[in-house]
From TrEMBL:
Matching Pfam families: Glyoxalase_6
PROSITE patterns reported in the protein's UniProt record: VOC
Residue ranges of every copy of the VOC domain listed in the record: 7-133
Protein's name in the database: VOC family protein
Top-level taxon of origin: Bacteria
Length: 155
């Protein structure tokens, strides 16, 4: 898409981390997000920008949030903000993050939308979902309930 069709070029989630070094170690060194840039300023101000592949903004209504919690965890747990990372091997990556200090909320389980999802409480106060896609988006779009209302207007 050209810039005129999609004026937003990047989604950047900014998270304040009380234990900055631990958060950088966990997300960069353990999860494996490559460091794009790091800056220091006056008064010990520091920021590290990590690349996370393709970014999307997932908007869910309260009923969908409850459904996701039920499928991934079995009970309500999600704060208003949860960060989800697509990984190639959800089971191995979940184990690696728990070994590095994350708290397991729910072990990897297959979801109705054909992904393998786990839930963790991670550094910087983030609740994290790791997900491994078990079908391509194209395959999933042929299943009942996986359509989109994009472009449809009730004028």
């Amino acid at each position: 898409m050209t810039t005129a069709e999609n004026p937003v070029l990047q989604l950047r989630l900014v998270v304040e981390a009380d234990d900055y070094e631990e958060a950088v170690r966990f997300y960069r060194d353990v999860l494996g997000l490559p460091e794009q840039a790091a800056f220091e300023g006056e008064g010990d101000a520091r920021v590290t920008i990590l690349e996370a592949g393709r970014a999307t903004l997932e908007l869910a209504n309260p009923a969908q949030r409850r459904l996701i919690d039920d499928v991934e965890v079995g009970h309500p747990t999600t704060p208003r903000l949860r960060v989800a990372f697509e990984v190639a091997d959800a089971e191995a990556r979940t184990t690696r993050l728990v070994d590095a200090g994350a708290t397991l909320v729910a072990s990897p389980r297959e979801t109705p939308w054909r992904s393998l999802n786990s839930r963790l409480d991670a550094p910087a106060g983030l609740q994290v979902t790791l997900f491994e896609e078990l079908m391509t988006l194209e395959e999933r779009q042929t299943l009942e309930g996986f359509g989109t209302d994009a472009g449809r207007h009730d004028d």
